[in-house]
Amino acid sequence: MNRPAAETHPAVAPAQAGSLYASRIKIHPRTVAGVFTRWRWVLVWLTQLIYYGLPWIPWGERQAFLLDIAERKFYIFGLVLWPQDVVFLAVILILSAYALFLFTAVAGRLWCGYACPQTVYTELFMWIEKLIEGDRPARIKLDKAPPDARKIGLRALKYGAWALLALWTGFTLVGYFTPIEALWVSFWSWTLGPWETFWIFFYALFTYALAGHLREQVCLYMCPYARFQGAMFDPDTLVITYDPGRGEPRGQRRKGVSPRSVGKGDCVDCNICVQVCPTGIDIRNGLQYECIACGACIDACDAVMDKMSYPRGLIRYTTENALEQGWGRREILRHVLRPRIVVYSVVLLGIVAGLAWAIANKPDLRVNVIRDRGVLAREVEGGAIENVFRLQVMNVTEQAHRYAVSVSGIEGIRLDREGLLEVPAAATKSFTLAVRVPPEAGERGSRTIYFDVKAVGDESIAVHEKASFLLP
Hints:
Layout: H1 5-8, H2 35-53, E1 58-59, E2 62-63, E3 65-68, E4 73-76, E5 79-81, H3 86-107, H4 110-114, H5 117-133, H6 136-144, H7 149-175, H8 180-188, H9 194-214, H10 216-222, H11 225-228, E6 239-242, H12 244-247, H13 272-275, H14 296-308, E7 315-318, H15 320-325, H16 329-336, H17 339-360, E8 365-371, E9 378-379, E10 385-395, E11 401-408, E12 414-415, E13 420-423, E14 427-437, E15 445-455, E16 458-471
Antiparallel strand pairs: 1-2, 3-4, 4-5, 6-7, 8-10, 9-10, 10-14, 11-13, 11-15, 12-14, 15-16
Helix pairs in contact: 2-5, 3-17, 5-7, 5-9, 7-9
């Protein structure tokens, strides 16, 4: 099913096919139009609209999405996540892994072809390249041209546009961790801190190199997903496939000529499917690990079939079993919903439901009670026994609150002063409270008591916390 790169990758020079290392031949994908291309661009613009626009959305007195590492708080619209909520991050990572397993088992490398940042930014950089240098033939001709004024000017314009996009990408990334409006002011006033400066230019350089120059090399040699995708595929996985039974033997012929009348298959051997491929493979050689499932070859082949008045689908999404057994669409869909997919879907829905429930029921108040071990217990005026406790009160909401504290668990137990605590919005404060019990409280030793902390004016925000009171 998967073929070695030396057999299928046209970017490998023939003399180097048996070599461990092969020099790269630059790939210039041809412009193509069609259903899959349109969907790919919809995803490109949608993901970038979210990426570049999200940090600029206001939410009260802050931005809607802010990962404030310095303050150890993540703001996601009305949700505030603290270090204690790291379990949510773990669940999201598990959710992402299961989603990747599910989508790959159903229809191959959908992530790679439509939403992977490498694919998205490569598309944007190639779009800029095409606007400035022209389509595939013009770019190839320009590569071979001597370094005259026109070539130097076009390359300078292209590299400058790439650099601006990469710099804006790096700036936006840092804007997720530093308030972006303040970052904007600092950027133009040359007062950026060393942390912000490093990451803006590092990520800009990273984007420029990977999307502008390395391109398919990242998918072929750097991305691990290409290597283990075979473990996720099975004969009922939908993948981009060339139909050799219909297409072979290949051969050129005039438009409108029936292929069977000249002893040929439907494939006219135009090689356009190779020219539009961003990784430079020939899909007619079978499924290869270099294929990122972008669907460009499908759009290109369908356009050729339309010109030749042949049916579409010579290259299409289908399964290995469907191709071998001649299944129609109904049989393909029936086999797509197989036990493996059902299990993945049930697990995925369970994780999503659990995560949604946990976020919806996340407490608005957290309290930790620690007894002062420096003073285990002491006798105060009137013979009362006193223990000192430290309360760490975390106000998870974005409104300041006053909390009323009371204690229970031993007859006659009380605080030595009024238990009213004020905590600012989305903040943590520590308070020291002394708790006293009468000398006749009962048996000695460690006794269980309870702290009740309630928001004044909103008793739905409350915590019932257990602690130990020491009676000597």
